[in-house]
Design a protein that fits this description.
By secondary structure, the chain is an alpha+beta fold. It has 2 domains: 83 residues; 181 residues, no CATH class. 34% of the residues lie in helices and 28% in strands. The protein is built from 4 helices and 12 strands; from the N terminus they run H-H-E-H-E-E-E-E-E-H-E-E-E-E-E-E. The strands form 2 sheets. Strands 1, 2, 4, 5, 6, 7, 9, 10, 11 and 12 form a 10-stranded mixed sheet that branches. A two-stranded antiparallel sheet has the order 3-8. Helix 1 runs antiparallel to helix 2. It is elongated, with a radius of gyration of 40 Å. The N terminus is likely disordered.
Length: 271
């Protein structure tokens, strides 16, 4: 419509010029009448153009305002995700290792020296908690990535085995003796167990182990020929990895086993 109006405006002066050059008398009177009519029409065309410009400006302003609102929402979401990624996550508090293989993990501590074959590190307990300011972390969707100088392994929680989960009421005495030998045998090179150390709100359960603020849990890992690393961990070995939650920063694992394992010790503080 705008193109038609502009075309009409361009043609009007040509029409006036053609009328003024033609004869006189009645024909001139006709041209005067046509000119007066066209002048009125010109005012209407200008008004139409003005209204069209207002409409176009309104549509453009609406598009700009809507786009600005979308950009603002996207920037706020990005900022929130960034803050959550930085502040949220899991923290590795401590890592303990134990030597040998157990004949009876439920036996008293005094019997370990006779019931255990002194060897390299066979058991790991990774103590974890949430980072300050972090939300809840589902250990069901958390995996442990471990590497030594030869092997890299990925482990997930084995929720369908009740033997590899112990709540706070069952966690007393030696952490490595909380689950029995049959439960340790369940933990292969692809899974870890959970022992609840602190859980006031009862959020850490077998099928839904959710780690909240103030909660602490031990992730149990077995290392031997049929489990993680396909062997025990000898002295002077570098081990590194991550405890990676579904979202947020991972817990860092990095330690080197001692230069030797003294005969008087069975448990070592690795990290």
């Amino acid at each position: 419509m705008l193109l038609l109006v502009l075309l009409r405006l361009l043609l009007l002066p040509r029409k006036w010029w053609s009328c003024s050059e033609e004869g006189d008398g009645k024909m001139k009177n006709v041209c005067r009448v046509l000119k007066r009519k066209d002048v009125g029409s010109l005012g209407i065309d200008a008004m139409i153009i003005f209204i069209a410009m207002i409409l176009v400006a309104g549509v453009a302003a609406t598009v700009f305002i809507k786009s600005a609102g979308q950009f603002e929402l996207q920037s706020m979401k990005t900022a929130y995700d960034t803050m959550r990624e930085v502040s949220a996550g899991i923290e590795v508090v401590n890592i303990e290792g134990r030597l040998g293989t157990f004949d009876n993990l439920s036996a008293p501590r005094v019997e370990y020296t006779t019931n255990m074959t002194k060897d390299n590190l066979s058991y790991l307990a990774i103590i974890v908690q949430t980072r300050p300011g972090s939300g809840s972390i589902d250990l069901n969707n958390t995996f442990v990535l471990l590497s030594n100088e030869d092997t890299k392994t990925l482990l997930r929680y084995r929720y369908n085995e009740s033997w590899v989960f112990r709540n706070k009421a069952d966690t007393t005495g030696d952490v490595f003796a909380v689950i029995n030998n049959s439960a340790w045998e369940i933990l292969d090179g692809e899974s870890f167990g959970i022992i609840v150390l602190q859980d006031e709100d009862g959020s850490l359960k077998q099928f839904t182990p959710v780690l909240n603020r103030g909660d602490k849990a031990a992730l149990l890992i077995r290392c031997n020929a049929s489990a993680t690393f396909n062997s025990m961990i000898p002295p002077r070995t570098n081990v590194w990895g991550q405890v990676k939650p579904e979202s947020g920063s991972p817990g860092i694992i990095s330690f080197t086993t001692p230069m030797s394992y003294p005969q008087a010790l069975f448990i070592f503080d690795l990290q």
